Amino acid sequence: MSTVPVADRAVRPAPVRAPRTGPLAGVTVAGTAEGAAGAVALHHLRALGAVRRTDLPDAGRRAGEHLVLRPDDGLPPLVCALRPFPDTDEPTLGETAFQALGGLMAVNGRQWNGPRRLPLDYVDCCTGVLAVQGMLGALIARSRGVSVGQVRVARSSAALLAVSPYLAAATAADAPWRGGPGAAGDTSGTGPPFLSRDGVWFELETLDSVPWREFWSALGLGGREVARGWQAFVNRYAEAVAPLPPLLPETLRARDFADISLAGARTGLSVCRIRTAAERHAEDGPLPPPWRLRPAGTGHPPADRSPHLATAGQPLRGMTVVEATRRIQGPLAGHVLGMLGARVVRVEPPGGDPQRGAEPAAGDCSARFLALNEGKSVVEADLKTAAGRRTVRDLAREADVFLHNWAPGKAEVFGLDAGTLCAANPALVYAHASGWGPTPDPDPFPGTDFMVQARSGLAWDMAGGDERPRPTLMTVLDVLGGLVSAEGVLAGLLARELGGGPQRVDSSLSSAAAVLQRAGAGHGPSAAPQARWEGPYETASGYIALSLPAGRGLRQLCDAVGVPATLPGPALRRAVACRLRTRPAHGWIEEFRGHGVEAVLVHEELTATARDPRFAADLRPGACALLLPPWRFLS
Predict the structure, then answer these.
(1) Among 175-179, 250-254, 382-386, which is the least confidently predicted range?
(2) Which residues lie within the region annotated Disordered (predicted)?
(3) Which helix (H) or strand (E) holds 560?
(4) Of 144, 240, 515, 534, which shows the fewest CB atoms inside 10 Å?
């Protein structure tokens, strides 16, 4: 890797041919990061060309979890430290504890009327992607003449990023009072997923109320229940709960899946059978990579327009990102690049993005929208007109990154495809964040979070051993998909900085699902049986979650609550749950600490997460709770 010593930062590195095996070719990686976070980071670094080493002399002497990148150019190694919190050393907390403290259990549990763990190691997966983002950002800073020797990434930051739109909405001044997990009434069993008479689990999707009404009309329903159902259905992305009128799922349970599919096909509403991971593999082949990075032209980029603006904390300072995106995945990717110092320019339709007005508001803007778009500039352009498309082309001509999440083929229709824009700007990284990724076939279903959970097999992966799929109404793939997209963009920028010319990056919600599934295959609950015993558990007052040590964790749990560990599994689970309901949460937390088990109180409301002093270094108070950058860059 060719970089510039700090003393010579005014000198631009000579362009070199980008290595065919990735921008990290010639780099070795070692370290002690374990579990899903380390597995994700190592897999992505190796996909970029790095070679894993286990025999480096100082690989095991550093304290805590870390990854070490060693370039082949004689510069000092780059160390990425994975910490529980940004600026403090708390006791070692696991995935379950961060889901409890960060609000993931609360959001995921809204549809189940109580906090519920995501069975996969979601916080760790997000942490691994953030670690790679930080390392790529540091390498970009080095290539621009800035000395960076260490990056710190906190799991607390990853947890809060996962719930950031929900957190902003919950802490906005005019946020409605939810009244606790059960305030909406018993919603379990009334919302997605759905079951047909012949035993098929499936999901429904439409972003338009007309197909919704026509679909239910085709099944013999109409009137108030359908209208009420539409409001609950369309709001599930924002609220993570869908309390449908019971008549709707009952109607579906009275029909065979073939009849339901036919009604969907006739009315334009998508009906997607929930596949298992094995079915997905048999039909689609191996899991897709997190992103596809490839050259988008043969030209060499001009000299950096702003070589001296980068700083250690803002490696992308002086770069411009043009973002034409909607919803969560694309805006979050742009938001991440902005937190790394880039100037982000949003392209919005005339009158602005309609989501700006979504409730609740934080000042004069939607809190959810603000969580993903704060600080971005806005240019309004009607892409249906030649003038609007020309505006976007002019912006892209001067940009470093062009990012969009349009449906497949739209970029070509607009004349804003990679070939066109990269020919006009040989310094451009062109990024497409889609639902299904590049495919020669038309997308079979809308590329939305819940469709991809169903189609990828992730809904079954999250079943946690249940005999039914358990998709979450928390937008796990939209968030992780945005993080993966930003990671790919950073890889493209590094390849460009090394003289590789314009780059194209393709990522998708489907590739984000693969990140979770690949990590779960070796580091999820099946690889750590004690994770199934970590909770959450209801007590006499509140819920608790545990971080059980490997090996003897279950026995320590049984010793703490006073039940014999020799009971068979189901009976032991019932005995533990029954015993924990006899005392308040705080009493049990002290009891567990006395037995060497770290226990935490589950935050049942996101406002409690925002008030937790352990997250003070992650959050910036204001009209609503917003996140600070999740990395710390040190020289």
Answers:
(1) 175-179
(2) 280-311
(3) helix 553-561
(4) 240
254 is in which domain, residue-wise? Answer: 194-273
Contact 380, 257 (CB under 8 A): no
pLDDT-derived band at 182, boundaries 50, 70, 90: very low
Torsion of CA 246, 249, 254, 257, to 10 degrees: 180
Taking the CB of residue 496, how many other CB atoms lie within 10 A of it?
A: 27
**Which band of pLDDT confidence, cut at 50, 70 and 90, is reported for residue 56?**
low
Percent of the chain with pLDDT over 90: 74
Is there a single domain that holds both residue 300 and residue 217?
no
Q: What burial class does residue 75 get, using C-beta atoms within 10 Å of its C-beta: 0-12 exposed, 13-18 middle, 19+ buried?
A: middle
* Beta pairing, strands 619-620 & 51-52: unpaired
Radius of gyration of the chain (CA): 24
The verdict on residue 38 lying in a domain is: yes
Q: Which two tokens stand for residue 84?
A: 């529980």
133 and 94 in one domain? Answer: yes
Where residue 431 sits, what CATH number does that domain have?
3.40.50.10540
Q: Are residues 344 and 462 in the same domain?
A: yes
The answer, yes or no, to whether residue 1 has pLDDT greater than 90, is no
Torsions phi, psi for 512 (to 5 deg): -65, -40
The DSSP bridge pattern shows strands 619-620 and 201-205 to be unpaired
151 CB-side CA count, 13 A = 30
Q: Give residue 31's pLDDT.
A: 86
Q: Are 540 and 584 in contact (CB under 8 A)?
A: yes
Nearest CA to 482 among 503, 504, 507, 458? 507
Joined together, the tokens standing for residue 507 give: 């990522």
Residue 1 belongs to some domain of the structure = no
Q: SS3 sequence, 405-466? A: CCCCCHHHHHCCCHHHHHHHCCCCEEEEEECCCCCCCCCCCCCCHHHHHHHHCHHHHCCCCC
